[in-house]
Amino acid sequence: MLEKRTDSPNQSVEEVFQEYGNMLYRIAFVMMKNAFDAEDVVQDTLIKYMEHTEGGKTFETEEHRKAWLIRVDINLCKNRLRFYKNHPKIGMEQLSRYYEEKEDTRLMDSLLLLPANYREVLLLHYVEGYQGKEIAGMLKLSEATVRKRLERGRGKLRGILEETE
Length: 165
Hints:
The protein is mainly α. It has helices at 13-32, 35-54, 62-86, 92-98, 102-113, 116-127, 132-139, 143-163. The protein has eight helices and no strands.
């Protein structure tokens, strides 16, 4: 089978979406197992395509373009799945279960009473599962500052919980 040469060096993002959007979505949906993440991955794939073509790079054939899009789509899915595995988080259903038990309700309410700088590091660490180095990068703080805020935040939380007993 002869490969179809591309007539123009690059198709617009809209044309690529019209031609390959459904295929990219199906691949992402099978890998991600939910529509929201699949839509995000397709959008990220199209952004990568736009960045690639704006950089002056072209595709030799239409098959080359299609293979490139599929590979980027799959790689973005893998990256997202790896991130979710390394950063487990508590879903809203699980949070609502916490509020069913009196002790957990008390804990969450006490956490919300903390100053924002302690509350954010405690939530990122204990609820979202991030490590100190990651939190430091997100909040643009040093790791030592994050460790100190975790330590002080735990102390303040302990104090609040003791007062409400």
